[in-house]
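Inverse folding, one chain.
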């Protein structure tokens, strides 16, 4: 089995005061449906906001796209050891070089690549990274990527204004809370499966938020609009719900009895055909799961804002003496939000 990575997930521009509890029993299990299987080792998951579920498909050496019709295609081919992914304003950012030997032997062959979903143009956004695993963007636009093999676990910052010069940000693993003040982190190889909280303005301030069980092998995570975390436990093959307000955690899906293995990533749906109150999970076993929440609505939901490219201004002709408006007037300044 390949290495287990540090986890990272972000939720930006959320309401800090939103309620954390959505169901009478927040620990009730979610129903599980297999959407696809036989896809080889899957490292990460993301939604393009346009109707596709994106997969870091290690065995295919690609970023693959799963449609709601079940069809799988290679969106970005020739990707070496794909890792974390984020879609921002119509552009996919994804890690390459997320390989165990790169971490063990300190190979700085990792990159963050940029793929424009409209033009299909691929460029290198940042390079010289060692085994970039998780990927997240903080409120100021800087990217954070994590590494956990071959040295002390670390987070590296890729400055938005100077992505050519990444630097060490903190000596531990990664996620951003609704207030934008905290980064949530888990560490795969700690026996007590800790989830940490780091103050973004002062990375030296680190506290243990919770310990969610023995040898869970925590990997990726995501967060809902109320700030509740959902953890992919690779070692246990589980999805764990963690409420940062109380530190209480429980398993809501998966596990050996359910036939889950090596769960690597989890995200809320986003875009046409992918409900934002459903969770979608993948693993090294090549299976894509859809999880439906129990009970009546309202259900926890993920945040889909910021994925789509803003619409260009459109000029409208007013019926005002049959003359066109002055230059620049009549523009629709709304942006697309999913």
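Residues assigned per position:
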């Amino acid at each position: 089995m390949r290495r287990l990575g540090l986890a990272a997930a972000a939720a930006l521009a959320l309401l800090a005061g939103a309620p954390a509890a959505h169901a009478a029993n927040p620990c009730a299990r979610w129903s599980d449906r297999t959407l696809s299987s036989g896809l080889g080792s899957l490292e990460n998951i993301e939604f393009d906001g346009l109707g596709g579920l994106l997969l870091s498909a290690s065995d295919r050496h690609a970023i693959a796209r799963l449609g709601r019709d079940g069809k799988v295609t290679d969106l970005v081919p020739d990707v070496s050891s794909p890792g974390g992914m984020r879609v921002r304003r119509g552009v996919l950012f994804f890690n390459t070089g997320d390989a165990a030997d790169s971490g063990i032997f300190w190979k700085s062959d990792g990159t963050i690549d940029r793929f424009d979903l409209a033009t299909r143009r691929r460029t290198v956004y940042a390079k010289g990274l060692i085994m970039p695993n998780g990927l997240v963007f903080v409120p100021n636009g800087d990217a954070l990527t994590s590494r956990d093999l071959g040295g002390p676990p670390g987070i590296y910052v890729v400055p938005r204004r100077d992505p050519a010069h990444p630097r060490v940000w903190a000596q531990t693993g990664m996620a951003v809370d609704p207030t934008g003040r905290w980064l949530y982190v888990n560490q795969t190889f700690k026996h007590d499966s800790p989830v940490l909280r780091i103050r973004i303005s002062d990375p030296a301030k680190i506290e243990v938020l919770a310990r969610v069980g023995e040898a869970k092998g925590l990997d990726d995570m995501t967060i809902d609009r109320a700030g509740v975390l959902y953890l992919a436990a690779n070692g246990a093959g589980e999805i764990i719900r963690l409420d940062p307000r109380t530190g209480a955690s429980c398993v809501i899906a998966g596990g050996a009895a359910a036939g889950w293995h090596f769960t690597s990533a989890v995200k809320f749906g986003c875009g046409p055909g992918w409900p934002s109150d459903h969770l979608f999970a993948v693993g090294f076993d090549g299976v894509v799961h859809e999880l439906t929440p129990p009970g009546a609505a309202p259900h926890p939901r993920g945040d889909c804002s910021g994925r789509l490219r803003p619409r260009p201004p459109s000029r409208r002709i007013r019926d005002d003496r049959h003359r066109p408006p002055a230059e620049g007037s009549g523009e629709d300044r709304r942006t697309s939000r999913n």
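The longest strand covers residues 202-211. Confidence is low (pLDDT under 50) at residues 1-23, 316-338.
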